């Protein structure tokens, strides 16, 4: 699942997944609230949640906290996928339970590489 309010970022992410030529289904949500609503009924649950930070009405930080406090969702790895490269933000998100932190890059090739590595080696988050 990708939680991101930017339609271009959703499109790029979807494109990168298609480029991998791996049978993957990706759910999309525009903010944390919509993600939680979709996750409440999603079966099966996603293997990963990629979470942007700057969204409204529910931002990524609040969504991460909600995910990690929900017994049915807390074990899904959450990877922060943000434009922020601030080390303090990274540290805070990891402290709140994020499994990884990727800074958005303009390179689709780099995103494809990250995703390929993650799908081939899940512990590489």
Automatic annotation (TrEMBL):
Pfam families cross-referenced by the UniProt entry: Response_reg (PF00072)
Top-level taxon of origin: Bacteria
Keywords: Phosphoprotein
Ranges where the Response regulatory domain occurs: 1-119
Location of 4-aspartylphosphate modifications: 52
Family annotation (SMART domains): REC
Protein name: Response regulator
Organism for this UniProt entry: Chitinophaga pollutisoli
Lineage, opening ranks: Bacteria, Pseudomonadati, Bacteroidota, Chitinophagia, Chitinophagales
């Amino acid at each position: 699942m990708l939680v991101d309010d930017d339609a271009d970022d959703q499109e790029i992410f979807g494109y990168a997944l298609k480029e991998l030529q791996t049978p993957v289904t990706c759910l999309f949500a525009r903010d944390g609230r919509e993600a939680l609503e979709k996750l409440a009924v999603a079966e099966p649950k996603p293997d990963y949640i990629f979470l942007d930070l700057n969204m409204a009405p529910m931002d990524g930080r609040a969504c991460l906290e909600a995910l990690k406090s929900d017994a049915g969702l807390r074990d899904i790895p959450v990877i922060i996928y943000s434009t922020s490269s601030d080390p303090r933000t990274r540290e805070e998100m990891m402290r709140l339970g994020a499994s990884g932190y990727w800074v958005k890059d303009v390179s689709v090739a780099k995103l494809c590489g990250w995703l390929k590595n993650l799908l081939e080696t899940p512990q590489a988050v």
